[in-house]
Amino acid sequence: MTIKLPSSIEAYFTAERDGGPDELAAVFTENAIIKDAGEDLMGHAAIRQWKVDYSNKFGPTVTEPFFITKENGKTLVTAHVSGEFPGSPIDLRYFFILSGDKIAELEITV
């Protein structure tokens, strides 16, 4: 199923799939926050390192967004994620707060 995503969120999933740490960091605001797996990361340097760390730890993954809605002022995208990690495949929830054409905050939950 193909869904229509806002351009900044589409850029996130494209950079996550095909890009490196710099490409991924570029879709976020300079002081963006990512909340993932109990960690809070802030800023481009932390986002670049997060991309390096999870790529090294889990290898390539396939993320297929299949649902989008609004929840508590955030854009919620649900995606099917598969790869070589414990619990794969799994559906994850990505809560985005956008600022202009960038992502100001991303929280990833089960």
TrEMBL record:
<dbReference type="Pfam" id="PF12680">
    <property type="entry name" value="SnoaL_2"/>
</dbReference>
<dbReference type="InterPro" id="IPR032710">
    <property type="entry name" value="NTF2-like_dom_sf"/>
</dbReference>
<dbReference type="InterPro" id="IPR037401">
    <property type="entry name" value="SnoaL-like"/>
</dbReference>
<protein>
    <submittedName>
        <fullName>Nuclear transport factor 2 family protein</fullName>
    </submittedName>
</protein>
<feature type="domain" description="SnoaL-like">
    <location>
        <begin position="9"/>
        <end position="98"/>
    </location>
</feature>
